[in-house]
# Entry
Amino acid sequence: MNNQLQPKVVITIFGATGDLAKRKLFPSIYRLYKSGKLSKDFAVVGLARRPWTNEILRENVAKSIDEALSPEEDLEEFTSHFYYQSFDVTDESSYSGLNMLINDLEGTYNTEGNRVFYLAMAPEFFGTIANKLKQYGLKDSGGWSRLVIEKPFGVDLESAKKLNKELRAAFDEEQIYRIDHYLGKEMIQNIEVIRFANGIFEHLWNNRFISNIQITSSETLGVEERARYYDHSGATRDMVQNHMLQMVALLAMEPPISLTTEEIRSEKIKVLRAIRNMKPEKVDDFFVRGQYDSGDMKGKSVPAYRDEADELKDSNTETFVAGKILIDNYRWAGVPIYIRTGKRLAEKSTKIVIEFKNLPMNLYYQQDKDKHPNLLIINIQPNEGITLCLNAKKSGTGALAEPIQLAYNHNAVSGINTPEAYEKLLYDCMVGDATNFTHWDEVALSWKFVDTLLDVWSKNVANFPNYESGSMGPDAADELLAKDRFHWWSF
Ligand code: NAP
# Structure
């Protein structure tokens, strides 16, 4: 493996005692190390306020890797690369100490001044940290410096602009890696390949042959321990502004002229620009919001959202959103893209269904209602793969058809677990590939679209709760498609 693909780096994690570091970042760094994608010349600096030591951090790193991956080897050599500094990000005096520690580690591990600053902390600190990293010279190291930012990126367009301004005062756009972990998922990255490497799909990928597209990302879990965060966010900010609109962009973009970051981003940005912005008075014709009531999930009764915590008692926050998105360009005019996401729904699944138009004549079904359109289903999670629904002759005499499915199950075929999204994204960041991170223009256009919804909804008290836990959301989400003579496909 050459040097370029095996980065030497000091990774500094702000928020190293938190949930994200524990569940995602430590196991991902370990897997990169084990697979040889990370040079043995690396160090990780963990920062947070609590008075941990190197040893406590190392024990926690080993524990999180044991829990996530159950490796059968001693982790001591690996965890010896981890260092802890107790650090309040708002305290000026912490930063020069951090610079000294990183400089020392660069000497010890020969990491050539390459630095990743990973902000696994609440977003209100992002601006301050970026600014201090610049002020105290931490980003001027002789190698490359990159800043990784977690979501949420603001709470609306205005706050996102403000945050972006603060970040850009310290880092260039090319140095900022905004994580949308969906973009690290194997099957999300596969959308481009399925489309642009298969003539049988790409030639039909337009309004002449596709009747509608459906994107569903459903969770069975409720708000769990994240009540405070979630109640300020809701499904629109948590899922639609980022993950759902990113999937829309990948499904609808034009083929890029090459696979460079710039070309792919530029095509995605064009799609986001072409999404029809709704007039406020039209929001309720295009979008449905919901909040879960109590219900029954696999034989267990579960409480309503408003009963999950005291502070949610009168909440008007949506735990479900469904909507119809229209893209006003030559390829997509007239094709609705329906999105749906929510908590406490009947199943945990993210999938995309492409419904093709029916043939003008199909003589092989006795009744119109039995006719089955061709569907391409892209399963993102937990199953990964694609299914193509076709019509074939029913065996026996006669000339009747029946729907059949051709399925490709990614996990079964490859026989290994796909790398965690975070592992891939961390690696991309370290090798300087920003393709699967969101550019500021994408963030801004997405906020512009969802701000209209949020603004209208903030002015009207919703009739919540309006869907039972364990269902697939409010009836209005079904009516949204029924108005256009479609229905949600479930498999
Ligand atoms: P968390 O568990 O609450 O962790 C927050 C971390 O920040 C802790 O390590 C905390 O440690 C540290 N911290 C808080 N105030 C600090 C200060 N003034 N100075 C230094 N450190 C401070 O949060 P999380 O779930 O890991 O989430 C981190 C970020 O990732 C958030 O932006 C979140 O939205 C995003 N995210 C998380 C997930 C996930 O699965 N958890 C998924 C997607 C996005 P001390 O208390 O010891 O200081």
In short: Residues 15-20, 23, 48-50, 87-90, 120-123, 150-151 surround NAP (CB under 6 Å). The chain has a mean pLDDT of 94. DSSP finds 15 helices and 17 strands in the chain. The longest strand covers residues 210-218.
